[in-house]
Design goal:
Length: 643
Amino acid sequence: MADSNVYPPGPDFVRGAHVKGMEGYRELYRRAAENPEEFWGALAEQELFWFKKWHHVFEWNPPDVKWFAGGQTNVCYNCVDRHLDTARKNKVAILWEGEPGDQRQISYQELHRLVSRFANVLKGRGLKTGDRAVIYMGMVPELPVALLACARLGIIHSVVFGGFSAEALKARIQDLEAQVVITCDGAWRRGKEVPLKSAVDEALIECPAVRDVIVLRRTGGAVEMREGRDHWWHELDEGASENCPAEPLDSEQPLYVLYTSGTTGKPKGIVHTTAGYLLQCVMTMKWVFDLREEDTYWCTADIGWVTGHSYIVYGPLAAGATAVMYEGAPDFPQPDRFWRLIEKYRVSIFYTSPTAIRSFIRQGDQWPNGHDMSSLRLLGSVGEPINPAAWEWYYKTIGKERCPIVDTWWQTETGAILIAPMPGAVPLKPGSASLPLPGILPEVVDLSGKTRETGQEGYLVIRRPWPSMARTLWRDPERYRSQYWERIHGSYMTGDAARMDQDGYFWILGRVDDVMNVSGHRLSTMEVESALVRHPAVAEAAVVGKPHEITGQAVACFVTLKKGSWDRPKLAEELRKWVAHEIGGFAKPEQIRFADALPKTRSGKIMRRLLREIVTANTVTGDVTTLEDLSVVTQLSSQADED
Ligand code: PRX
């Protein structure tokens, strides 16, 4: 990636920006680095509502941290109630459009009514602070309502992306020992119904802790309702009172658990807590998205991923924004649906993923060019490195060279954006997430923890705790300690490779572990391998990420078979479907390649490095379903890998 083009912020943008010019950025960064307690303490006081003030800004006993210890607040109160005695009370909070074209506009006042009623519904089912709710819904307004209602009472929520299968859902419900599941009959996707309730039914066969299932009617599709366990949302909601005060909760009360892929077959339950998480979400809305009262903001992520948690629900609502929310596919009914929405709602801030951008490029410029998108003033990117060519297209074709692009680097674990340009301050370099935000001390190091020289590649670590960082892994504090904090002692290990250039800009190069990034979604190679070996025909499997023009990476699988005569092309198709069944449609492999043996080190570790080379350079040619003899490469390379 060349750092040739540099785009300084335009004078018009700088004039109205929260942080103006490099001096503005440097001053904030310096204050946060020199005195983090004073810096974050002042922001917490200014930006959040507190029932009770904290006694310490942070207490750090690596890897355990407490932010705003002793304080009491409530995330839902901050996102909803406190706007009600301001001019925002009748402001639209959620500007929603369903895939079929239906619309809803929900003001902060209305949101307060919906959330209070649903919180009373949850209370009515006997749920209380510390209990767990799994939420498996499509992108309908009741999804943020459900999250906020849980937050109001201190019920720990875990949203499972609607694209995950019943199997994946089951594993998450079990790990969390959830008492309630909140779902929809189905969701609309490309004009078809994605059945959600039936997946819940399948998952619940082995989830004895679940007492109640609350079902929102969205598509009107036929569902089975089990007497005593299943309840319609609208029936419970009908009689619910609108008076449900927000609970004063400890700053460190867990807010949610979000499962994400790690380097083993078992997903990790990332635990985020209350006050620090919310503070950093709010601050990044201002620092990175430069949010103003009059903005119409749209983040196209799904709430099933962390981007949706922090930048559709908690960040925008706590900051009092008007946020667009769209239910369906970007190309339905035609490839210009996003551009249509931007024109219709006069969206001013638009935040999407490089995968989406690359697929827009492929569809052709006629789709965006057919719409008036002059309302846009800021563009954002998240989830994967954005290649400079896609960046330039986004800048020119969507932003008409008027809108800065904020390339935001962060992770499920970090809770909020850590590295991104402040758009009124930091000159942009296409392909670089640029400079760290105030309070964030990233470094590129070698495995001994020594700082790499400028321009050299290395491991990206963060040196100091920050308010929105994950506190632990659900029921697995040991894995949290060893994965993130012990590899480079006392620093947070991101799992990404990066380099820093002579201007201090960070260039993220991708994962260094066995985690793939498919369309900006994290997926572990071992999760897919475990799914494959559960199939009766499969003896062994090895999975690697294969570079892909649109999705960044695609899933490529090498499979050895048990004895028998197999119709390989048919089996390859069956295995692709099998993975989708075991994990979810987004994990469906692009390639299944059959091999006689898998290349392994002498200690039996699969040499993914070698397989990555094979899928990248495509040194093994021919039909993807042909039998590959990898034994030769194995012999040649096992020695090297062992060293
Ligand atoms: O490799 C980095 C990549 O996505 C990973 C985090 O994935 P996840 O937890 O699912 O969160 C995605 C949304 C925040 C990171 O380790 N990544 C994320 N944003 C960027 C990125 N890589 C390069 N540039 C980015 N802006």
